[in-house]
Amino acid sequence: MKRTSWMTVVTAMSVISLAAAIPAQASAPSSPVTAAEATPGSVDPPLYDRTENGAKVRVNVVTRQRADLPAAAATGKTMQSFESLPLVTVKVDRSGLEKLAAQSDVVSVTEDIPVPPSLDESVPLIGGTSPAAAGLTGAGSAIAVLDTGVATSHSFLKGRVVAEACFSPIDADYSATSLCPNGTETQEGAGSADSEAGPCATITECDHGTHVAGIAAGSGKGISGAPARGVAPGADIVAIQIFSKFASEDYCGAGATPCVLSFTSAQLAALEKVWDLKQTGTPLVAANLSLGSGRSSSVCEDDPRQAVIDQLLDTGVATVVAAGNNGYTDAVTAPACVSSAIAVGATTDDDELSAFTNRGPLLDFFAPGTSIVSSVPGGGYASKSGTSMAAPHVAGAFALLRQAFPTRSITSLETLLKATGKPTTYTGASTPRIDIGQALSQKSDKTGDFNGDGRSDAAYLYDYGTNSDGTNHSALWLQASNGSGVNNPVKQWDSGTGSWNWSLSKTLSGDFNGDDKSDVAVLYKYADTTDGRHHSALWTFTSTGSGFNNPVRVWDSGTGSWDWDSSELVAGDFNGDGKSDVGALYKYANTSDGRGHSALWTFTSTGTGFNSPAKLWDSGTGSWTADNSKLVAGDFNGDGKSDVGALYKY
Fold this sequence. Notes:
The protein has 650 residues and is of the alpha+beta class. 15% of the residues lie in helices and 29% in strands. α6 (208-217) runs parallel beside α10 (387-404) and α8 packs parallel to α9. The longest helix has 18 residues, at 387-404.
């Protein structure tokens, strides 16, 4: 993903790379597209040449809002419409292009270009055996494979395909016919993406999707002759066929007919289907597009797939795209160039760059992509090479990380993969090769990342002292990391005169509500009652990403039940639910002979507050002195739950 952070198909060597898939993401599918002001230049100039002498061309028209679609559709013949996107695919002549150029609500007009499709050794290379040792398989998540369909009865994938659909445009002007098993342009339900049924059953190139699905989520357990596993063998698969069969050398190349190619409009329909499935409860974590076309050395924000890739990201689905097999040293294909897509290049078994892989500043990850053995139709297995094979390694990685970190956002998981990957440096850039084992080793809390950009920041409660009337004044300040240092401090909250005593506050940080941003908790001491009994309360300042909410009291001891002075605090995710809890080593009065007595209590987070403290351990009289203990929290045994360590003074 190439978003700016303010902080922090077949070619030689059986290289199969689908090069024109379009990912999408936005907060709401019906929301207007954010784009530059539309001008006559909204029409891609080469389209005028394509429509000389009365010729017609398929175009994808993006408008500002869905209300603008009827006028755009009226310029030609509608070839594909969408349920939620402000976009329509029409076939137009020169006159239609001129009408579109004159419509102020048209954002962009681009050709609906048809493009081609672009494990035993690769999974251990990226640390994929570590998840198996930890019992992680990607269970509970689904991966969408937008490709040439999947051999649903293959033993490597059998029982794992939970949803199917086919979007395969028919267009005689392009020599395009359907690859849907029933021969129509659109088919949904069981069997609709089965690559061993219908026209695909006799086309060799249709093995591509089965191979990709096996890399992402295949399981060879108990199968003789099969690879041991794909990356996430417990994840479900959503299979979506997005290719059509072409019979013209104009599109397939000389002597290469027939071939399979994917229209951008088919990719858009499939991505919208992924979004719809996510909204209705399918636990999708990634959509894999092993395809692409063109050459982009800068982010292509005018790509019509941008909006739906944005939508998917905002709803928790990563769109993982093959970077292409052209050997470009400073560019990738589209839609890998879309800022919210995750562009993946390929490496070899020796962890060197694959000769064919595209690379450069737009690349997000490398993953193995040379001589990868995976499933193919007919019940067998085959070796293929390409960035098409690299991308599903990353898609599978997201399923494993989702299982390990169920509350983290896709952006947070991507940041984790980047921070823990093996740096691969080459001319002009450095890109991490994913290392899932290292990513999973980071399961202990990362405190202090108050804005959620993957870097720790500094926050502090500042004491303005006591006013002349005896009242108090405190404020909360934040210094955010910028990667090479910290920004100037910014005041986030001010108590106002007389409302917060700094000296009565014990502070600590942790992600107390599970939103992947650190918050601040304060155990506050109230005046003792006249009979010497105590009173304490726990408050939280939850992060908004750009600041903090006002403090909220989330627990109160009540009079006489908790001594603030006897509490040493530490924060950590002690029950492994993705939210930080508060641990307290509590000091009890020593016995008459000076022997100590301590107990460990936890306040477990509910997401909106804390449960009442529960005693987890008691030293018993005379065996532990709290004053001699300094506490720290961390996942010391690697089980995904924080533990408490104590340096003890004898």
